Amino acid sequence: MSLDKENKRVSRRTFIRTAAIASGGLALAASAPATRAAAPAAPAPSRGGTLRAAIIGEPPSMDPHWTTANVTASVTSHMTEPLFTIDAKLNNIPLLAESMEISRDGLTRTVKLRKGIQFHNGKEMTAEDVIASLTRWAKIAGKGKVMFERVESLTAPDKYTVIFKMKVPYAVFESTLGFRSQSAMIMPKEVVEKATEKRQVPTAELIGTGPYKFVEHLKDRYIRLVRNDKYVTVGDKPDGAGGKVGAWFDEIRFMPVPDQSVRVAGVQSGDYDYAEGINPDQFVLLKDSKTVTALVGFPSRCPTHYINQRSAVTKDVKLRQAMMACIDPEAALKAGWGSPEFYRVSGALMPKEGPWYSEVATQAYNQKNPDKAKALLKESNYKGEPIRYMATKEYPNMYQEAVVLNQNLQAIGLNMKLEVLDWATLVSRRAKPEEWELFTTWNGYPTDPALIDWMDPLYPGWWVNPRIDALRGKLVETIEPKARFAVFEDIQRLFYEEVPLLKLGDVRDLWLTSPKLKEIGTYPCPWFWQAYFTR
Amino acid sequence: MSTQILRRLLTLVPVLAVVGVVVFVLIHVAPGDPAAVMAGSDANTERIEQLRHQMGLDRPLLEQFWTWVTRALQGDLGDSYFLVQPVTLSLAQRMEPTGLLTLYALILSIVIGLPAGIIAALRRNSWVDRVMMVTALGGVCIPSFWFGILMILVFAVWLRWLPAAGYVSFMEDPLGNFRYLLMPAFSLGLQSAALLARVVRSSMLEVLREDYVRTARAKGLRERLVVVRHALPNTLIPALTIIGNSMGTLLGGAVVTEVVFNTPGVGRLVVQSVLRRDFPVIQGAILAIAAVYVLVNLVVDIAYVIADPRIRQSSR
User: Fold this and answer.
1) How far is CA A218 from the centre of its chain?
2) Which among A57, A200, A271 has CB closest to B166?
3) Integer Cα distance of B142 and B188 in angstroms
4) DSSP letters spanning A436-464
């Protein structure tokens, strides 16, 4: 956002335009969040019905501040809302905020709140609720902590205004406050102050401003929400996760169904209207079905295999470069994702569809060069120590990728020890630097590269050194878009020089819905406030 | 009799103590951290440490054990990390689906297995006997989860007669409850029915060769009366053993069936709790299941006494 002019007030329209550049949102061409395998023209929406959504399991917590789990974000984003959200082109737009004013030096951000917004308990949302919620969120969420380290003060001059005084300009302000994992959701002051950062907000007290409100949570059976009839929408048409909200369903039931085959059978039998977490190998069986619709998302995430830089073995940069030189990302993607409809071979650290795409330094990706790898290995201090590679069969894609990469790495003479663990063991062991060298996971593409997991120096793998730390700081504190892009390209260069992890490519997700269900949102997590049934 | 029951009930104490200690040690020795699961896959190490501290997981193991034991002795099994409710309440909420599922499966296995065994014995070596015994052999061999998936495909996906998965409470809708539990009960009860049919058949064949059966026939009793009044009661003892054992097997098998049919019972709770390392729930659920096993065995033993006068005599 340009700050070289006088103080300026940003209206919603200008905000969208400028925020798109400043945040560098993934300006995706596709306005629909997911592409349909067979897309009939959708008839006009009509009100009514109960949506039965089969989700991958019981959320680990129903408190949106508490966990980074997608399933929590997906359920709670129907009840609670943040200050900012994203439009169809994934630019930041205001949601509970009405507008934002930025001072000439970029250090003061004055956020005006929308008036007359009611919480589900009937209380009006005001600045004190925003301050209390954000203060709690900043003590819990990693991204909140990073942001609030740069906040000097947060004050409310009146009921509908919040002023952030920053220590430094903060380029990812709206992206961070609108981020949909462990989100900065606004809840009533009494609720968050009672819970504090030490306790989860009890589900019965989960009160927000969202288009649906909480009714009942029967554990392992369903989470029941009903339409919030007092919801005040903005705009005159839907726009991504923002804009005019339809809230067409009378009721939404999120039903935890941990077994994938049950989710698939449930949509086929008409017991569920929606199922998520479907393995792409099911696509060939389901794409021509008349009883279900298979939805393929856009490339919203990337499989990643992290390398431990606190391990005495893999802290050696030559060894990591050797790993990058020898692996065959395409073979690993094919093994994990099967059909090319679900994966794309790409070394860029952000997807092609957005403004952050750059091919700089990507010649180091997809080299498939065992000879070069062996030469690099000779230059390293590697003496045949075991390399513990943690994988899990709970996510078959990740496991199959790991099997291929493990073979690649073995072939150049690395003493690989592939350890197949359950996910709970993997996530607990990866937090202990003495217990592993490599582990498999995936990372979602946020709207801004500053919010990717590996940009967090405390994320397992621990990519920490003066060079990347300086670039991290620069990326969040540089406001001018071109300069930010240049910083990001420097990061991508450094990424391929230091190889903190093996990034394989871009992948797409698969969802199943009943053919009568239209317009579900799938990015950054599934949502249904624009979805409806055709009659 | 009542002294015996009391004595058996007292054995619950050492059983539960041993189970409690073993389960506590096992789940804490096994790797896996509930805080890391709760924090979510994108959480950094600082957040996981913060949660571990808040959940008390960073305290010494002995201290955690002592806290758990002293609370458990007062009937408080602690609170679930993930369900944010007392473990006792979590278990109580899941007793209905598991209890009803086991009951339906048991009824089905008796209704199918008992007559099938009797008919097969009476028509020994006929085609009826062979068909029934081959079917029973198949029933014993087919894993219940596979049979369950097959039933979902046929009755839910193709025919759409029954719901594929899920549950409604008996209190809310008794008929709906039966519809949801019919396929799981069949898939669970099939194995027990098959086993029961085979045992009843062989036991019946033995009994039919006894002198008192010959006497009954000789004095001109009708065959139906011979079977129902003289032969059947004497085949019941081995059948009771099988039914009693089946209760245990059914409760254990309910774990798999509940996962396949997404039934929110104790079995699925245990599986989910193991996957997310919800220590208090795992401990509580295993204790509860152990107690149920002991009690079921006790009930079977009492049933023996009622069914067989000889045991009644000797127990005096």
Assistant:
1) 27
2) A271
3) 11
4) -SEEEEEEE--SSGGGSGGGSTTSTT---
The DSSP call for residue A43 is: P
CATH code of the domain in which B139 resides? 1.10.3720.10
Nearest CB to B268; choose among A220, A423, A429: A220
What six digits make up the tokens of B122?
């009476």
Question: Alpha carbon of B57 to those of A160, B49, B65, B87, B290: distances in Å?
Answer: 42, 9, 11, 17, 26
DSSP-assigned letters across all residues of B214-245: HHHHHTT--HHHIIIIIIHHHHHHHHHHHHHH
Quick check: A257 contacting B, CB < 8 Å? yes
Domain, as residue range, for B188: 93-263
Those residues whose C-beta lies under 8 Å from the C-beta of residue B224, and which sit 6 or more positions away, are: none
The 10s digit of each residue's pLDDT in A270-329 is 999 999 999 998 899 899 998 999 999 889 999 999 999 999 999 999 999 999 999 999
Q: What angle do CA A257, A258, A259 make, to 5 degrees?
A: 95
Stated as kind and residue range, the H or E segment containing A218 is: strand A212-218
Please report whether residue B67 resides in a domain: no
CATH class of A35-56+211-298+509-535: alpha beta
Among B residues 122-141, those touching chain A with beta carbons less than 8 Å apart: none
All residues at 6 or more sequence positions from A450 whose CB lies less than 8 Å from its CB, including other chains? A171, A172, A175, A472, A475, A476
B87 part of contact set with chain A, CB < 8 Å: no
Number of domains chain B is built from: 1
Rounded to an integer, what distance in angstroms lies between the CA atom of residue B72 and that of residue B64?
A: 12
Task: For residues A234 and B235, give the distance between their C-alpha atoms in angstroms, rounded to a whole number.
Answer: 75
Nearest to A326 by CA among A373, A383, A275: A373
* CB A188, CB A50: distance < 8 Å: no
Q: Say yes or no: B276 contacts chain A, CB-CB below 8 A.
A: yes
Please give the model's pTM, rounded to 2 decimal places.
Answer: 0.88
Query: Burial letters for A68-83: b for 16+ Cβ neighbours within 10 Å, e otherwise?
Result: bbbbbbbbbbbbbbbb
Q: Is residue B43 part of a domain?
A: no
CATH, range A301-507: 3.10.105.10
Least confident of A21-25, A487-491, B168-172: A21-25
Collect the ranges in chain B with pLDDT lower than 50.
none
Q: How many CA atoms lie within 13 A of B120 on its CB side?
A: 25
Q: Does domain A1-30+62-202 fall into CATH 3.90.76.10?
A: yes
Sign for the CA dihedral angle at A14, A17, A23, A28 comes to positive
Q: CA–CA separation, B243 vs B196, rounded Å?
A: 7
In chain B, what's the furthest Cα-to-Cα distance?
Answer: 86
Beta bridge partners, A518, equal A532
Domain boundaries, chain A: 1-30+62-202, 35-56+211-298+509-535, 301-507
A-to-B residue pairs, Cβ atoms closer than 8 angstroms? 152
User: Residue A37: pLDDT band by 50, 70, 90 thresholds?
Assistant: very low
Alpha carbons A234 and A83: distance in angstroms, whole number: 13
Separation CA A469–CA A487 (nearest Å): 12
